[in-house]
Amino acid sequence: MEYLAQQLINGLTLGSIYGLIAIGYTMVFGIIGMVNFAHGDVFMVSTFIALIFLLALTQILGVGFLAVALFIVLILAMLLTSVWAWAIERLAYRPLRGSFRLAPMISAIGMSIFLSNLVQVTQGPRNKASPSILSDVIVLREGANYAVSISYKQILIVTVTAVLLAAFWYVVQRTSLGRAQRACEQDRRMAALLGVDVDRTISLTFVMGAALAAVAGLLFLIYYGVVNFNDGFVPGVKAFTAAVLGGIGSLPGAVLGGLLIGLIETLWSAYFSIDYKDVATFCILAVTLIFLPSGLLGRPDVEKV
Amino acid sequence: MPVAPAELRSSSARPILAALKEAFGAALLALGLSVPILALRTEQDISNQLVLRPRWDYVAVAVLAAFLGRLLYLAAAAANARRAPRQAAAAWVPPAGLARFVSIAGLIVLLLYPPIALALTGRAGAIKWIDNFGIQIMIYIMLGWGLNIVVGLAGLLDLGYVAFYAVGAYSTALLAQNFHLSFWLCLPLAGILAAFWGILLGFPVLRLRGDYLAIVTLAFGEIIRLVLINWVPVTNGYAGISGIPRPSFFGLPFNASDQGFAAFFGIEFTPLHRLIFLFYVILALALLTNWVTLRLRRLPIGRAWEALREDEIACRSLGINTTNTKLTAFAIGAGFGGFAGSFFAARQGFISPESFTFMESAVVLAIVVLGGMGSQIGVAIAAVAMIGGTEILRELDWLKDIFGPAFDPTQYRMLLFGLAMVVVMIWKPRGLISYRQPSIFLHESKPVRADMVKEGHG
Fold this sequence. Notes:
The structure holds 2 protein chains of 2 kinds.
Chain A: H1 2-32, H2 39-60, H3 66-93, H4 103-123, E1 128-129, E2 137-142, E3 147-151, H5 152-174, H6 176-186, H7 188-193, H8 198-224, E4 226-227, H9 233-246, H10 251-271, H11 277-291
Antiparallel strand pairs in A: 1-4, 2-3
Chain B: H1 5-10, H2 13-34, E1 40-44, E2 50-54, H3 56-87, H4 98-153, H5 161-179, H6 183-205, H7 210-230, H8 232-235, E3 241-242, H9 261-265, H10 272-298, H11 300-310, H12 312-317, H13 322-348, E4 350-351, H14 358-371, H15 376-395, H16 398-403, H17 413-427
Antiparallel strand pairs in B: 1-2, 3-4
Helix pairs in contact in B: 2-3, 4-10, 4-13, 4-14, 4-15, 5-6, 5-7, 5-13, 6-13, 10-11, 10-13, 11-13, 14-15, 14-17
């Protein structure tokens, strides 16, 4: 029982990170109907940005107070990752709007390869271990032979995710930008006719997705303590799985899907086989796309001629 | 639009200012992108702690390059715009016989390649040129042609093609190890098994739309790789399978024994014999792929593939069974991937899951995309350029004199591939080298050229 409770805590933490990344996939898909294959690598870039700033603040500038350092790193990572996403959208995707069906997808795959190799070339191929922070744990319940604990990291991850999702929900539901986004999602041409700046809205969608991915990047860095140039691929596919499982295009679906994927992955590793945990996620992806293409909370997709 | 000289002079200051402003924006963007990924490199010091090494000089170069690049681009665009009215009509059309000439010349070069390499570089050098260049490139040409059936002809974006390559390679290795079959028996079996896997994996996924299909094939490719890694009793995991038998020449092995190839023909033994033989084997396999594709393109099934690529809904409306059509493309493409994998296993004598990563799929896909989806000759040229280019990068030792001894040009291989895929999609979405129209096309219709592949024109 204690073991299960511990796995649930771990799963929810992991799921929060996947959910944050999944929002980027689902928003972009909702607004321009494209799988942004490079999003996982944007996330990976953000982990490196976070790592470098964390090192710079603690080593070079000597910011001792950890909360301040983390907050500055978070803001900088969100900002600079957004610059990346903006540039990618502007240079690699926008010229392809209205090109043939597979063009944006192929361009995104190229971008994904480019980003992971750029980081490999500029930062080196080795694993990068960040200084260990927030590693204290609170013991919640002392079982007979197993103690359920939650670490400060996990509390931070779940709290930050919840706060940001609330802020994000407010932006999408209550501000004019969110209204423009939802309008573009429903009918881009009509939105343009009614005075919505479609290009700007799409750019901002990419930027928002990337900012949330950057939050996930910092949290990932804190949680695992190790990053690698290859880390965009598997978390990216898992987050995409989360988006699909929740129903692509649906924001609550992305979060729900993220939490589910996190839980499934953790429980699978705990009870079945840690070697096959990625296989489990990939299978969920395939099964969902084949049998439940509109996901748990998504609307059915009707193909128009 | 003709502009009077006086008018041009008076308004020339403003465009220059605007251009400077845009170039400044590009430089600012470059600054934003290169901080901190390029500016600060994380490195481990002696006590295994990460430290930062600043490289602001790199950032300065990147920013300056962005500024000047943007300025030059704008200048070129302005110059082009002034000339445009005259040039618009004269888009370059390749002469009718060019493709045929290139393919025949290419075939002759390929057939004569081993003797030429031998004559030019001598015995020691020829090993490298035939093995690293010749055989390596031919494997990728074959993979490119195989994937071209799926992506280029049928328009199904398959990101897990390497899975079938892996199935072929592991089938050969396992059949040879457990049942002691020779390469020549394993080869067809591997192809059939890979095609079978193509059908198995293809059947559930082929009713998905394009980008979903791509992601699911990617997932299948990864699943197969992870199973190869973790199913240790059968596949030996990361350690891989070694001791795969080499192909023999009608029963004559390529070794120094009395029953060997060299002894039978009474010539001196050299490892070159096997390499030259392997080169002709893969050449024959690749040409078989090409020939089958060319023939299939003329059959109803080939026509159906091309129709499917152009417009799936129209296809369905005309009564074409899209599932079967897609499935045949998938299975045939997978089968050729399996042949290539079988050859790969026999050539290396050793295989491990490391050879079958997603990057391998991406390289083959990049070859098909850059070559021009559906164009056989384009794919071949792209494979030669990209794989040969990579091998040549290894040779460029003089670059180390410029960039320092730590500079390794092969690191930049995938970086350039990725960038090339993006640039080609923007600039010439139907392929850099060539493009292929459907075999049958309504002739009164507008031609579908690369620059016209937009909604409402194709």
